[in-house]
Amino acid sequence: MRSQYLKKQGLPDAPGVYVFRDAKKRPLYIGRATSLRDRTKSYFDADLVRTRGLRIVDMVAKAASITWQETGSVLEAVLLESALIKRYQPFYNVDERDDKSSQYVVITDEDWPRVFLARARDFDHAAKNGGHSYKVRSYFGPFPDIGTIKAALKILRRLFPFRDKKADDPRHESFYQAIGMSPGKNGGEAQKAYRRSIRYLELFFEGESGKVKKGIESDMKRNAKKMRFEEAVDDRKLLYALDHINDIALIKRGQSRPTGFRIEAFDVAHLSGTDVVGSMSVAVDGQAANDQYRRFKISREANDDLAGLIELLSRRLNHSEWPYPDLIAVDGDERHKKAAEAVLRSRRVSIGVVAVAKDDKHKASRLIGDVETISRHKEAIVLANSEAHRFALRYHRSRRSKSHALPFRIPHAVQSSHVASNPGRRPPRRSKQ
């Protein structure tokens, strides 16, 4: 498929959902956009490998056509995208389909249904092992980007006030009633109206915003006919709000998501199995993204760098609000690479892994992984690995200093995990902090 194809299609400069399809019209990949025209054009840039990774390049090569559905807002695009991914399970929507740390939106089956987020893996586990502590009316997702779905729920709650998970706490519920984000009335009619709002909320999550608007229009006409003018005015205001959804927060999230090639590097540091910590560094388009570095205190105090790496990577994958990388770099050899790949397989996440082996001076001597990927991103991989090592040592020294309350400097022998677990190797120079 060529970029000329897009020009002929005339995609609009508007929010919506697009679908790459193969020669048999089967969905390969489903995505959302604040601008359908600009977003789909990006798939035909010359540097697609650098910006989106090999998986997306493979998808575009197999695509024969693109279809799309324009939406009235970014909010509708977010919810429609999730509904379509769940329905069609496209092969290249790996993150959206398989991430077990993502979130469901759950609606309970009660007289006054509650609406809240539940971690997908916990929700699925409870469903397989005796059920939940609450009755489930419906659920939607999974949503891999926790920040986006939280922002979406805030918008929807202003339109359709609902009770949340803590609604049984009178003080909590009173607060949300006072700010108009939870129904403030009781009684049969109020309950009936609330359940109608819950149904509209469900239709929204099913990607059926048009049915929502038609339903509210019918409510408005019925209320006017019965001379319930106050309710009819409320319906009219709601229709206006639906046509003028303020989803600036969602647009900003979409714009702030990194579009460059993202590498995350991981390293574990300890001293003979004590004060074990881990770090994650990030490089985007070959530049260190310091504000996205993260550090972890490893739970198991042991001289076992592989176990530390497995815990570190597992905990990182629990953070679905962080964008997934295009490549993962681990400090070590083939064993470390295989350990990382095993974690990814257990989560059914498809991300390439490169291991960075070091020489006696703790300098990168060999990169283990896909030859083409290494050739294209070697400098960025080494940079990210070096930063992860530096960040891990810094955190380890800080923790060791606090735990032992030593008035003197930490011994020079403190190294990253694979060096500390092999004391016969020559320690590298200390990083200048």
In short:
The protein has helices at 3-9, 36-41, 48-52, 54-62, 74-88, 94-98, 120-128, 146-159, 170-178, 188-205, 209-225, 229-243, 248-256, 305-317, 334-346, 371-404, 417-420, and strands at 16-21, 27-33, 65-70, 103-108, 115-119, 136-143, 262-271, 274-284, 287-288, 294-297, 327-331, 352-358, 364-368, 415-416. The chain is of the alpha+beta class and 433 residues long.
Overview of the molecule:
This protein is of the alpha+beta class and 433 residues long. The protein folds into three domains: 3-94, GIY-YIG endonuclease (3-Layer(aba) Sandwich); 101-254, no CATH class; 262-420, Nucleotidyltransferase, domain 5, CATH 3.30.420. Helix content is 47%, strand content 19%. It has 17 helices and 14 strands. Strands 7, 8, 9, 10, 11, 12, 13 and 14 form an eight-stranded mixed β-sheet that branches. A three-stranded antiparallel β-sheet has the order 2-1-3. A hairpin with a 5-residue loop joins strand 1 and strand 2. Residues 406-433 have low confidence and may be disordered.
